[in-house]
Model the fold of this input.
Amino acid sequence: MYMKQLNKSEHPTASSTVFTHCRQYVKHETEPYSKARVTFLLAAINETCALLREMCKTEQNTELLRELYGLLDAEHRKAIKLSLLLPSDESVAERAVVHEQLAVDLTSALAEREQNGIVKSALEHTLIDDADHLYRFSNLIDITEGISAQTLVGSLTEIMPGRHTAAQPHAIQNIKTQMLIGNCDLQTQLTVMIAATIKRHSADFYTTACSFAENKLSRLLFAEIARIELLHAVIYDSILTTEESSLKRLLLQKYCECYCVFSCCTSETDPRLRSVFDELLKTCTVQFRKAAELCERYENTQCENIIKDGEFPPSIILHSNTEYVRSILVGLEQSDYSLTPNCPSHRVAVEHIRLFGRDYRYERLPHPVPRLRDNTVDNQ
Done:
């Protein structure tokens, strides 16, 4: 596996944080999962940036602070370069559909392979919400921009209602159990870290999008779903707690980032994006080595004590998961789709029905929940 090479990497050079080929992707020509991978990696890198900023604020050792800032600067450059891939003619609603397709298919891929019952339950819980978010944004973009979300998702992900956001406060109380990082296997640790990362990134994006959306209904919908995405992140954070030091957390976070980039490299089909991801992987490898060096120097901790054998779990491959999503939606209860009449997510579906006589969906088969099959009413 690639991780065997991590401790053999070269030292950083001036060019190690400089990317080429950062021309914007063409939104109508780029495959849906290629767009999703850019968002995925941007989320992973921003998570590392957030951890490094937190460490820099509290670090008292000047020498270590300089080392941490060097890593933060490199991470920030990577985030900027990935952001430059995002096309300027892609609206916030189009980008929201990318976020939610990523959430649905990434969460499905993680849940299908997860063996830990607590984590699997949390993934399936948020998956039902992600399906509904995709449905709400798809109705919004059809109303406001006349864009078919089926085209945006490439007919790879079904668009249909799931658990409504009004049911969230009740449902979240069902997930309370916590585990320490050292008490579960490495794959489970990575799964929870990745799931929380994606949720935080979406929450931040939707919060920012509130100020860019062009109409009141769009702004309110972004605000409503931003709140739910943040609640999802809290669910994952509460499941997996840590008693490790900041440097050990940094090492694990860098390992997680390397794993995400490696997964995207192995499955990316766009040659230009693949070259960007390959270059990103080289840089991530160098920075992982640096984090391992800091752990050894300041805490006398070997990388192998945290990462164990260093082998990556099987790569995360984004693919269509319609059957799995349907199998989870079957578990919806009526309380999960009872509505608060005036909430934005309800109003966007009602407005689409008013304008076009039905809501916006893309379904290969009738909805797995019989009471949600009527596309002329919203979640009755």
Summary: The domain at 25-89+247-307 is CATH 1.20.1260 (Ferritin). The CA atoms of residues 372 and 379 lie 6 Å apart. Strands lie at 179-180, 240-241.
